[in-house]
Amino acid sequence: MGYQVGNNCYATRQDAENVYFSLVPPKIGEDGKLIQLQASKLGWILNGQIVKAELPECNPIDSMRDGSYIGWSVVAIMAAVWGMKLLWQKLR
Q: How do the domains of the chain map onto residue ranges?
């Protein structure tokens, strides 16, 4: 199992969290302090505390199967339309 960030599936939680947290822009708080996530060996840190992302699980094999199913469905539709066009031309 992997972890999903956006439309991408990452094999490890660390890779997914790196992508997820690196997309968060820094912010200046009301008191003028910079609020920014920082990467460390322990994980991602915000204001001295380790943060974890709640990411949905995904399976790259299922994504591949879904893509293959859609691709072959499109090919079948195109073949059927081509066959109907050929039959129409023969009957004309």
A: 1-58, 60-91
In this structure, is the dihedral angle defined by the CA atoms of residues 4, 57, 46 and 30, taken in order, positive or negative? positive
For residue range 23-50, what is the model confidence (pLDDT) as tens digits? Answer: 999 999 899 888 899 998 889 999 889 9
Amino acid at 86: L
Rg (CA), the chain: 24
Position of tokens 């609020």?
35
Angle (nearest 5°) at CA 49 between 44 and 54: 55
Phi and psi at residue 33, in whole multiples of 5°? -85, 150
Size of the chain in residues: 92
- At 35 the three-state DSSP class reads strand
